[in-house]
Amino acid sequence: MTDIEQLLQQIRNFRDARDWQQFHNSKDLAVALSIEASELLELFLWKGNEEADPQKLKEELADVLMYALLLTDKHGLDIKQIIEDKIKRNNEKYPVDKAKGTAKKYNEL
Amino acid sequence: MTDIEQLLQQIRNFRDARDWQQFHNSKDLAVALSIEASELLELFLWKGNEEADPQKLKEELADVLMYALLLTDKHGLDIKQIIEDKIKRNNEKYPVDKAKGTAKKYNEL
Amino acid sequence: MTDIEQLLQQIRNFRDARDWQQFHNSKDLAVALSIEASELLELFLWKGNEEADPQKLKEELADVLMYALLLTDKHGLDIKQIIEDKIKRNNEKYPVDKAKGTAKKYNEL
Amino acid sequence: MTDIEQLLQQIRNFRDARDWQQFHNSKDLAVALSIEASELLELFLWKGNEEADPQKLKEELADVLMYALLLTDKHGLDIKQIIEDKIKRNNEKYPVDKAKGTAKKYNEL
């Protein structure tokens, strides 16, 4: 994944120029990711479904992605691989004939 | 980004086979992303910094990434672009000479 | 619960003086509560278990409690009642002989 | 606050019967609180503003409140006090003449 690897390099460089790897244990990375997901969600608070500020949406999505990438990188995970594996699992949890057109969780199908 | 586009295709196919796009407004996608980030965080609850179950870590990270990708896709965003833009902004918020070796937030530097 | 009712009155007055009840649908209250819980969590980011700023801890806990109280009030719930009911349920999910001294989730006991 | 103190006693008893205080450092309590807030939010995922299951709403709200109470208790905080203090601060951040009828955040008023 040449583009992802390029991005990871830029993210690592930014982190290492500031000597921040010392803080990047997995638990705090997961906390940071959760906080960024919350900041993204805040763009919709008290608003309609499509009313988030578009510029801020880009920035908060970027923050979420960066922490997700830092975690995958720390654990030597390949993004393509883990997503494809999860889609396979989801195919079993959410068979098309049962899940089509409904938002029910898998344990309610 | 050929690999990302390939992944997005798989994610879209999974969604469309189940006719789920009707539920995927931006606010609910942000809510879903926040929930997945929380499920990832739960792998560390009451535990040490590196004690999350590795298999579950892969699965929850995949879930976070999938919702993040669905949101970028919905808004026609290029992942490479938005991350590079954010790194540029962060370079200004966290200048190396002030931010090096400290975990302080930008407004405390 | 006289003290809780007093607090609720103050919270309602603050809201109504600003004509904010129009925004307080249950979903957005739940989103707000989640965001405040995240802001509380952020006080511990990159830090040790007991290193949160004590003044900010009070403020963020107050924010979490206020949104929780607004939700219970909106649904006519009695805090004492719902907590006692949940403790009863937890007694079954986490029997002392199985749960004592372990942080395992109920489905792993 | 006699009723709150009674509730706290029940919560402490439940915790101590299981010897769980050893896990209850402040950071993990904040993580747990954030996770419960997320489980509450999940009741609204893909749904309308008032479509959460009422029974589950009670249970998740109870979980949120219990962790909030455990944190206030651990830090010797009085719920009435911290909420009243926050309302005072909010009175300044959100003056009625500026904040009335708008959902804008204080830094956008």
From TrEMBL, chains A, B, C, D:
One Pfam family, short name: MazG-like
Gene Ontology biological process terms, A to Z: nucleoside triphosphate catabolic process
Keywords carried by this UniProt record: Hydrolase
Keyword Hydrolase belongs to the record: yes
InterPro entries, alphabetized: dCTP_Pyrophosphatase, DCTPP
CDD domains: NTP-PPase_RS21-C6_like (cd11537)
Highest taxon in the source lineage: Bacteria
GO molecular-function terms, A-Z: nucleoside triphosphate diphosphatase activity
Name the UniProt record assigns to this protein: Nucleotide pyrophosphohydrolase
Species the sequence originates in: Sphingobacterium gobiense
